[in-house]
Amino acid sequence: MVSVSSVEDYGPAQPPLPFCAASYPATLDAGTLIATVPGRGPAPLQPQNQNGLIGYQAAASVGAIQAGEYSISTAAGGTVVGPFAAEAILPSPIAITTDLRPGTPIGLPFTLNWTGGGAESVVTVELKVHIPGDPTTPILSATSPATAGTRTLVAPPSGAIFSFPPQADLEIVVTQQPSQSQSNSFSASGLTMGGEQSWSYVFDFKGLTAQ
Q: How many CB atoms are located within 10 Å of the residue 157 CB?
């Protein structure tokens, strides 16, 4: 899959999760990729081996993710994957209007408001509860069309796990992504099932407190 993503973090970083490359699907070397982004010329992306997984990451100099048409291609291919070309058209990201600065108290029901977003997008709101010394992370989530402009999270019937203890560190993750699976696909030698492209915007608000 070719994925174009934008991730924005707000607040203090969480400790990294344990990583096990053996639990991930095998990743393939497609050689040098050429990424073309709105308002800028083509930029080369080199394969990077991180913890045993091959991936590609654009440098900040390539430009921030924004609305427009993107393309990723390779004319030569790599050691496993042959030449291919993939395109994606990204809509504008939503603008979140709810105040979620670090230290903001959060309780249930919780309502997130935003502006922007079109019929081609859905917005998923996740509330994560981090409790010191507790390895579990309760998550409450719900999805709405981006055109709704609002979504409210309410405690489930078994909502005792969401009775936030005072020491809980809360996190709100908002994801904007396509409203339906994308039909834009591409083929290349070495990909027995072909490939597909996708996109997402992720807004991660950390350091929130229990109300």
A: 5
Selection from 89, 143, 147 nearest residue 117 by Cα = 147
CA–CA distance, 102 with 144 (Å, rounded to integer): 25
The DSSP-derived string for 74-131 is ESS--SSS--EEEEEEE-PPPEE-S---TT-EE-SSEEEEEE---TTEEEEEEEEEE-
Q: Cβ neighbours of residue 4 under 8 Å, at least 6 residues apart?
A: 65, 70, 72, 88, 90, 197, 198, 199
Residue 26: pLDDT above 90? no
pTM, two decimal places: 0.82
Q: Based on the number of CB atoms within 10 Å of its own CB, is 180 exposed (0-12), middle (13-18) or buried (19 or more)?
A: exposed
Residue 147: per-residue pLDDT = 95
Asked whether the CA dihedral 19, 20, 21, 25 is positive or negative, the reply is negative
